[in-house]
Write a structure and sequence with these properties.
The protein has 13 helices and twelve strands. Helices cover about 40% and strands about 15% of the residues.
Length: about 325
């Protein structure tokens, strides 16, 4: 089998999609698949760039005599290039955030709906989504037919391994992954006000969030541009993960903390609940700082709860193995040839 993976032009601070499919590509290659990695030359953020990216993509898929047909897979939010690619092409929808940012009367709503979702899905042979939550959103917000959608979850990076660490009862380190508005730093800051703890943030918070953290006298530190190993070290060094975001397509940090052996406080929302697994995290209302605080205090004060969350979390994370996820993609690719 031949496979072409199309990537968006990389953003300096957003690379989870690229990391995900690069690791899948290595697993595909181990299984005998010939994989070609193709990166778009422009950001797909203007109509001029959309046209230029589509033209470029079309030049990359010329058939060479003797080569068998290839499956094309658009891995991220550059699905608009699908019209330049031959059959079969797969697109992946990670979330529906662009459709949730604008009301239906807004022109940008219809631009995103047509350019990212509707038109690409009509041209694609199959559409994969990373969670049942995303599938339900796609069905509710677009006219993409259900039989075209295939749920294939993200996997846990095998580099995340269990590392035992004594829990710091006096001044625990709480890890926060991400700084976008949906990551809810302001709500977490209010929840932590007055608690003896240290907040470690991956990413550079906005000026508004920095002001909130300082006004609440939170002991915090942030770092951006970290290597994969440096991110893993942050998990190993923390005492618990607070992942109380208000919107996710999947929620991979939950699994990363579980695999490392750290208790998790996360949002009582979908897909957080499903990703965390039964009993795998302390679930809280992310819109209520008092509820977030109560969940964190439960973990700080209850050793038995911490132990139970760690054990259930590790068992849950083990279900998200890269090999099984790769096999699901390969089965879909094979069905299209």
């Amino acid at each position: 089998m031949r496979l072409r993976l199309f990537y968006r032009k990389p953003y300096p601070t957003a690379f989870s999609i690229e990391r995900l499919f690069d690791q899948l590509a290595a697993t595909f290659a181990e299984k005998g698949v010939e994989v070609e990695r193709l990166v778009l030359p422009h950001y797909n953020n203007t109509l001029t760039n959309v046209r230029a990216n589509s033209e470029w993509a079309g030049t990359q898929v010329q058939r060479t005599p003797g080569n068998p047909p290839a499956v094309n897979h658009i891995t991220g939010d550059v699905t608009s290039i699908v019209g330049a690619l031959p059959y079969p092409t797969v697109i992946t929808i990670h979330d529906c955030n662009p459709l949730l940012r604008y009301p239906k009367w807004h022109p940008r709503y219809w631009f995103y709906r047509w350019m990212i979702y509707e038109r690409p899905a009509r041209r694609a042979a199959a559409v994969t989504v990373i969670s049942e939550k995303t599938r339900q959103e796609v069905l509710a917000l677009t006219s993409i037919p259900a039989d075209k959608l295939h749920v294939i979850p993200n996997f846990l990076d095998p580099a995340f391994e269990f590392v035992q660490k004594p829990f710091d009862d006096e001044r625990p380190t709480i890890l926060q992954i991400g700084v976008k508005p949906n990551k809810n730093i302001s709500g977490l800051a209010e929840a932590l006000r007055g608690l003896a703890c240290r907040l470690e943030i991956i990413g550079e918070p906005s000026a508004a969030d920095l002001e909130i953290l300082r006004s609440h006298h939170i002991d915090f530190h942030y770092a951006s541009g970290l290597s994969d190993e440096e991110v893993r070290q942050r998990y190993r060094s923390c005492d618990l993960l607070a992942f109380v975001s208000t919107y996710e397509g999947f929620g991979l940090p939950i699994l990363e903390a579980q695999a490392t052996g750290r208790p998790v406080v996360t949002s009582d929302l979908s897909p957080h609940r499903e990703v965390a697994g039964p009993g795998g995290a302390r679930l809280v209302d992310p819109y209520d700082p008092a509820a977030i605080r109560a969940g964190i205090l439960d973990i700080l004060q209850d050793e038995a709860l911490r132990t139970n969350l760690i054990e259930r979390g590790r068992a849950n994370a083990a279900d998200y193995h890269i090999g099984s996820v790769a096999d699901r993609y390969l089965a879909l690719y094979s069905s299209l040839l």
